[in-house]
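A reminder before we start the practical. When you read a complex entry, don't treat the lines as separate problems. The point of joint prediction is that each chain is placed relative to the others, so the output describes one connected object in space. Small molecules and nucleic acid strands, if listed, are placed in the same frame. In the example below there are two entries. Take a minute to note the order of the lines before looking further.
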Amino acid sequence: AQSVTQLDSQVPVFEEAPVELRCNYSSSVSVYLFWYVQYPNQGLQLLLKYLSGSTLVKGINGFEAEFNKSQTSFHLRKPSVHISDTAEYFCAVSRSGTASKLTFGTGTRLQVTL
Amino acid sequence: SQTIHQWPATLVQPVGSPLSLECTVEGTSNPNLYWYRQAAGRGLQLLFYSVGIGQISSEVPQNLSASRPQDRQFILSSKKLLLSDSGFYLCASATGFDNSPLHFGNGTRLTVT
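Here is the predicted structure of the whole assembly.
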């Protein structure tokens, strides 16, 4: 079975500052990795995904993530955040071959302030 | 692209009452369908998934059940709600191909009082 750990429940950051949201996973088999964003009282929207190939993945809204197999990590980064990036961010993993059956982390609340 | 409709958006129900949440999908056929629950301060927990009409798999033992009467319709039900059933319920859909990500509806916030 897979598991996901998001080390920070909340990350406060000032607008235009860089941010990194951490995600570590555990699995005994090959995995797919995802980051989703959830705005208040809404469903989740896919930010980016890693299936194979280049370990640096670029997503929507200027976000990117890097798959590090040796450290079993998939941290999400953005060089300059905006107020509108305030949301809950979820890291998720699935076993290769079952991309839509996800195990989610507990989420990180990104709070961007002026 | 897929669009997932969920209703109602919010629901307040007394303990012991029945529940029916509906989800319909547009823009794809024969999708895999999922019900997730998000409890306060916790991640998303997969409750049920379905790969076709009448085919339901339960991921965790609980007070809820799911049904799929039509290809793009997925229903979450309970005969008698418990306080612990409160949460944010999300329906999701995927095309079923290996690298197909999940698409989510906007969710139903259920409060059991």
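Discuss with your neighbour: Chain A has a mean pLDDT of 92. What might explain this?
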